[in-house]
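Q: For a teaching session next week I want to show students how multiple molecules come together into a single three-dimensional assembly. I've collected the sequence lines for a complex. Could you give me the predicted structure tokens for the whole thing so I can convert them for display?
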Amino acid sequence: MSASVDSPFGPGSVGLVTPQCFQYDAPFTLASGRQLPGFELVYETYGQLNADASNAVLICHALSGTHHAAGYHSADDRKPGWWDHYIGPGKPIDTNRFFVVALNNLGGCAGSTGPTSINPDTGKPWGPDFPMLRVRDWVNSQKLLATHLGIQVWAAVVGGSLGGMQAMRWALEYPDQVRHCVVIASAMKLTAQNIAFNETARHAITSDPEFHDGDYLAQQTSPKQGLATARMIGHITYLSGDGLGEKFGRELRSGSFARGQDSLVEFQVQSYLRYQGDVFSDKFDANTYLLMTRALDYFDLAREYGDDPVAAFKTAQARFLVVSFSTDWRFSPERSREIALALMNANRSVCYAEIESNFGHDAFLLPSERYETVFRNFMNTIVTEAQS
Amino acid sequence: MSASVDSPFGPGSVGLVTPQCFQYDAPFTLASGRQLPGFELVYETYGQLNADASNAVLICHALSGTHHAAGYHSADDRKPGWWDHYIGPGKPIDTNRFFVVALNNLGGCAGSTGPTSINPDTGKPWGPDFPMLRVRDWVNSQKLLATHLGIQVWAAVVGGSLGGMQAMRWALEYPDQVRHCVVIASAMKLTAQNIAFNETARHAITSDPEFHDGDYLAQQTSPKQGLATARMIGHITYLSGDGLGEKFGRELRSGSFARGQDSLVEFQVQSYLRYQGDVFSDKFDANTYLLMTRALDYFDLAREYGDDPVAAFKTAQARFLVVSFSTDWRFSPERSREIALALMNANRSVCYAEIESNFGHDAFLLPSERYETVFRNFMNTIVTEAQS
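A: Of course. Below is the structure for the complete assembly, covering every listed component.
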């Protein structure tokens, strides 16, 4: 287990953390019917599990997230984990009270078994042969991790975006093992527009000649340009139009519009996007990107419940918090209201909050006073056995 | 001049049309300061120019438009010109009253001088050496075409999107030569989000290895995959989210979500987008796409007027019609209201209509009763000398 230590990172930080690895050595059957011979999940924990293991909170990550949700990996780390604003001592997910588990999902590229891992049958990286995954596969593999950690019941399962889909699926698949479910900036299924953006991103990747039908690792290359284009599409659509405007306006990076000049005038937003695309394509695996976006596209909460979300949620026992952000147009408040309405009609306990924000879908990752308050208040209602 | 003939295409059609070519043989200085040694513009006309040449209407096209705005090129043509809904006998731009001129803009790839044309200095295609263009270059070249056709004053200059930018620029550059100005689904300048989408599309094109720094024609190839990705981005963003949802929902093209299946499940919207991307990349020139999107990005109506749109529009003498569409999020109604407000504050005559539509930016091309009525009513107010 990784230790939270007092650290020079300040009182709200979980401090230095060390990733751990959970190895599952038995065959694992996927929703597709295919089997993995076993798998590894890399994860981090923050806080202490209490005596009756009733204070455990699972963090489910989104498209490009990892197990590194909070704290720092070394003393000279410049950036903390991706959700450090909301996880730590005194933060909404208060590590003084909760034992927090964050993992890199199966199929990921941050250490867990995925397309870049060695396929034991061939001795080579899985690459494009890695099985397609569904959200329920993540839930089932997270369940095995929970058992490994001695957690029978989660005090809460929490996630934003694709992570919210995992949280909801948890509440339906293991209803007596999820006491609270926090679903942020998510949806019961993607819209056609959302699928279309994902498809365009995938087209950019798979049409890059360096993709080699997914076998780029064997060719010692990577479809970096395609991945960069995919990330650029993501970046624009995860921000709001107004947010981009406030951040960049039409400011020029260089050049001018003066008559007589024929150089390529560049706006700040252009070089920012190109930079973001390049950084991402250096560190992320293209097959993982394809796999994650496909799981997003295919997720449909109520498919196995006669397409009736109310029937689906009647299965759940958890108390729900559903949060959306006003300018999020890829997972719009309308999608979250659909979740909240279905929960109410299923007679479940649900709090719904729509947060004013100028940051689009990315708002779920960013500091915001009202969001923090809503989140904290809900988490504060969670009674852990050791306290009661 | 092309003739409108009675035809089997029905009473509302201009019938068969034949493109013409205007050749300008003198040096033409661009906004950048560079010179073209001359140029050709391919154009079509519909209706008859009246005796005092007071009934001429100029159609300015958008990003991927052409001179073929109405009618048919042959008896077995299946699709009419791109704005056939609005140009023809009895239509809003009524060819019984107006002499309509539609051209392919300089830098285009439908017959006018552009990157695919031969550079007389080298004997090879211009390719990436074709000069950068500004909207005012189109206006100035259109002015030369007008002179060639014996038109001193346009009864109206009309355009949607990038075409609306040309119409506005006409009204500022040649105020006594534009009596009416119709600006549809346009903006005084692009937002950062809009620039960001264009930049992502350009990245997809220029990072395609077949782009060869723009010299793909010399290599007898073309960056088709990049161009297809660019078009896919365009397609999604020119439609509204609801429009895409209504058209495709989450319908499957093949496959199913049944357990046990690991094939690539495909949504209808995916294959539609891929098809659209492929069709476009077969016929459109990548350098033209770059050039057109850069002109879009750089357009800023009031830049030379101290960034004051009111000061800019005080230059204009035309009567304006400004139209926007409720679900257009790339050229949102807000942008059109800014135009209308600046015109009012400049004491100009302006009608503004916001049309309810589910078709996003594409609505300006599509049939809509209210849009048609507004458009027709405005055009009907135009008095041509021959009538008065």
